[in-house]
Amino acid sequence: MITGKTKIIGIFGDPIEHTLSPLIHNEAFKYLGLDYCYVPFHVKREKLKEAVEGIRALDIKGVNITVPHKEEVIKYLDIVSDEAKEIGAVNTIVNMEGVLKGYNTDVRGFISSLKEEGFFIKGKNVLIIGGGGAARAVVYGILIEGGRVYIFNRTSTKAQAIKEKFSNLGFIEIIENINKFVAEKINIIVNATSLGLKKDDPPPLNPNLLTSEHTYCDLVYPETTLMKKAKKIGCKVIGGYGMLVWQAAFAFEIWTGMQAPIEIMKKTLKIR
């Protein structure tokens, strides 16, 4: 039951209707007996500054940040963690008595979701599709885990910016187009775009380029058309639910100071 003592946590995004974060966190709060409530907020790009100011004004204890605000939100924060600063993207904010600090839990969330599936990055060739905040987190995570990054984005300037940002951490090559030659040397393909959120979205790559030797990872949830096709081809498929749960667990710990009930969070999404 919500009372005058209930602490509010939220998520800012556009679109936001698809989010499962309220379900995950509210079940976790309930399980641990915490007087918190997690609420989704539909925030348009042009209203982001006002929304962030509202965190202080309404004494919201923390928020998650999702598409398309992860990079832009940084300019409105008081403090940014070293990792989030390095990545150039924030997905978690905590309100410390009016001081807003940004973190990025996407990196650990992504890596943890892969390891849980028995997939380790070191020495692997990874194709990243995308150039936004999620792509930055994934590229950073792959490089610090010892993988090699091949990045493709429709806006080449964004891909180039990522290369310049992270080339000191390891191997990065920009791909102008994804063809059979490119696909043959790739071990894992990661869709770090929002393509797949809408039913009429085009696939992030031609499914005919996939083989049973590939691992296909999609940060989008629920299951997309391309994920279904990849399974039929024989690919190992890792969906966005794993990363969703793990990044949520790390954010939960930042907000509450308590260890997240990860098994409850998984059970909520029926992840086994």
Low-confidence sequence ranges: none
Give the name of the CATH architecture of the largest domain: 3-Layer(aba) Sandwich
Strand order across the biggest sheet? 2-1-3-5-6-4
Mean pLDDT across the residues is: 94
CATH topology term of the largest domain? Rossmann fold
Strand content: 15-25%
Overview of this structure, please?
- The strands form two sheets. Strands 2-1-3-5-6-4 form a six-stranded mixed β-sheet, sandwiched between helices.
- The model has no long low-confidence stretch (mean pLDDT about 95).
- It is of the alpha/beta class and about 270 residues long.
- The protein contains ten helices and twelve strands.
- It has helices at about 20-30, 50-55, 80-85, 105-115, 135-145, 155-165, 180-185, 225-235, 240-255, 260-270; strands spanning about 5-15, 35-40, 60-65, 80, 90-95, 100-105, 125-130, 150, 170-175, 190, 215-220, 235-240.
- The chain starts with 6 loop residues before the first strand and ends with a helix.
Q: Could you write a compact summary of the structure shown?
A:
The chain has 272 residues and is an alpha/beta fold. It folds into 2 domains: 124 residues, Rossmann fold, CATH 3.40.50.10860; 132 residues, 3-Layer(aba) Sandwich (Rossmann fold). It has 10 helices and 12 strands.
